[in-house]
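User: Once you have settled down, look closely at the record that follows, taking as long as you need, and be ready to discuss the fold:
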Amino acid sequence: MSTVGTSQFASAKPAGATGFVPALEGMRACAAIAVLVTHTAFQTGQVGYSVPGRVWGRFDMAVALFFGLSGFLLWRAHARAAWSSADAPATGKYYRSRIVRIMPAYLLVAVVALALLPRSNPPSGSTWLANLSLTQVFVPYSLTDGLTQMWSLSVEMLFYLLLPLAAVAVGRLRGPAARWRVPVLLAVAAVSLTWAWVGAAVPLPAGVNFHNWLPSYVPWFVAGIVLAEIVSAPPSRYGAVRRLARRRACWPAALVVFAVICTPLGGPVTLDTPEPWQFALRMGLGGVLGFLLLAPLVLAPAGEPARWLGSGPMLALGRWSYGIFIWHLVVLTAIFPLFAIVPFHGAFVKVTVLTLVFSVAVAALSYAWVEEPARRRLARREARRSAAAPVPAAAPVQPEPPAAETVAPVG
């Protein structure tokens, strides 16, 4: 790369600095489909200790992308406020937007799964309450059929809840002190890796897995948070990261990281419990993986074409990705009896295609009938709230003192 090209890239405004980033929407679609594929692979008996079995099983690392995306998008305004004179986001408005984004569609799928999916024993009251409140990772044996993937949504909701507190915790690192924000965040991520050992020492009831708690996944969120700090910092900072954040460099490196995670170093791909060091290594590498996949998208110069990730089909799948994620296990559970397929006995491709097609259809309906109407209602409510808010009175104008030469002599 020429010196001119490098300097132009370093000084250009990053694509992820503000506003909507089309490539991230496409990447969100990829993550949702990867989660779907790892579940169809498991349910058709393809996940195991062969090389393909490990690869399919480790498609669950797509959750690191979801968490990294959340960290980046939700932290970006806080980072911008720290590096400039911009205002920090209003906490109340933030919480309302998160609740409306997640809960309406989620409650619908939870009720459908709990009430309609066939199971040997009906769900208990505690299972209903835990799933409807997204606290199932803390309640024994409440990850139930059609909703087992929701452990990650439970983790994400707790992250949403605590994010404003985390912003306050580093709130003094503003202006010149903002340069310490990334080191502090990386230190927090590194310390969180000890949860693999600390969590194992916590006495918990049977049926509760500390691996599914937020402390495990801090590195995955921090990957996105650090990217938010970098795109918000002046162009003169983090120059090396900005120059290296190219797809041709980062994505092959991400493939290598993913390959390492697929080995026994990343722990078992089945439901067996990993060794603490394996789990810690997988969490750390998951953060690196998310960073490498997202960095070229958010640090690219604004206006650079998003190519296929920003294409019409990928943007549509990205809009529907939340619905794909929350509905696909309900769809998968229904696919087996409807098409006379025996679980764990093959038909991986057939089951995957059927699950994807029906999940996309249901997700599109969920977006059109539930998610988008709820978002629009909130937008109208926020507009009315802003219109009704009293306008601060202008400060009174103090009279100018007379010029020195016109002051009357005393005495």
Confidence is low (pLDDT under 50) at residues 1-10, 399-411. Residues 21-380 form one domain. The first helix runs from residue 3 to 11. Residues 15 and 304 are 8 Å apart (CA to CA).
